[in-house]
Amino acid sequence: MRPVYKTLLKIVILLGVASYLVYALASLNHPKQELECKGLSIHINDEQHTDFINENEIRDLLVKKQLFPEGRALKDVDLAQMESVLVASPYIEEALCYTTPEGQVAIRVTPRIPIMHVINTAGEDFYIDNCGGTMPRGHHVIDLIVMTGYVQRATAGALYTPLATKLNADTYWRDQIQEVHVDAAGEITLTPHIGDHIIILGDTSNIEDKLSRMKTFQSEGLDKAGWNRYKTISVKYAGQVIATKR
User: Fold this and answer.
1) Do 96 and 108 contact (CB within 8 A), yes or no?
2) Can you list the positions of beta strands (E) in the chain?
3) DSSP element (H, E) containing 212
4) In 3D, which of 104, 100, 156 has the Cα closest to residue 125?
């Protein structure tokens, strides 16, 4: 056989092998769409174990929306619509739906995390979440700092998520503060577990600096002078800690 024909034959064989490999990989990653869904696999990435959403609730939600995949042909399973329905839940931050090589539908869900419990003057009872929004309390109970007073649910997430995030993320403040109160003028005060005083925060600006000044005053001032010596301690003004004696 002439060298040129041998070269062409090798090229044809290599192309054939390459085409087969591409087909095999595609078949592995994308089950035949005419196959029936063989099952549903659900994974909830709930590292904090809040249990605000569980597998049964996800299944019930899909059934209610007529999107439950088991028993359907894979070509009739609307993965994008399933994701849209799941993230519309006030308890779910992200949802990813996909098919597996075994012909199952897999769902991976990341829940929203409650970071402050709100009970406002209107009698509403809800949570501020880690996504800057709010979550209904429903039947869920979790031990968090409570926010009371004139808190509007429509704006609570936007206004108070930075404060809630800071207090919830810092074990010092999470253990120290039992209540955040918002008065009719929008001024924020904090009530600690220890000591017979309130902390005047003012608004949510410069939260990091305000809490840092307060922590320093507590460790260098209250530990020496006594935790019940003052009625109010204000950190609302930049660079100042103003303590009012009883």
Assistant:
1) yes
2) 40-44, 92-99, 105-111, 114-120, 125-129, 134-136, 146-149, 177-182, 188-192, 198-202, 230-234, 242-245
3) helix 207-217
4) 156
Residue 36: how many CB atoms within 10 A of its CB? 13
pLDDT for 34? 65
CA distance 140 to 128: 13
Signed CA dihedral, 202, 208, 211, 216: sign only: negative
User: Would the pLDDT of 33 be above 80?
Assistant: no
Instruction: Inform me whether the pLDDT recorded for 28 exceeds 80.
Output: no
Report residue 25 as tokens: 């990989």
Q: Which of 235, 230, 229, 191 is nearest to 215 (CA)?
A: 235
pLDDT in tens, 71-119: 899 999 999 999 999 999 999 999 999 999 989 999 999 999 999 999 9
Burial class of 179 by CB neighbour count within 10 A (0 to 12, 13 to 18, 19+): middle
Both tokens of 94, joined, read: 């992200």
Q: Which domains does the chain have, with CATH numbers?
A: 40-111 (3.10.20), 114-245 (3.40.50)
In this structure, the chain runs to a length of 246
Kindly indicate the confidence band of residue 31, based on its pLDDT and cuts at 50, 70 and 90.
very low
What is the pTM (predicted TM-score) of this model? 0.78
Residues 6+ apart with CB under 8 A from 234: 199, 200, 202, 240, 241, 242, 243, 244
Hey, how many other C-beta atoms are within 10 angstroms of the C-beta on 246? Answer: 9
DSSP track, 112-144? --EEEEEEETT--EEEEETTSSEEE-TT-----
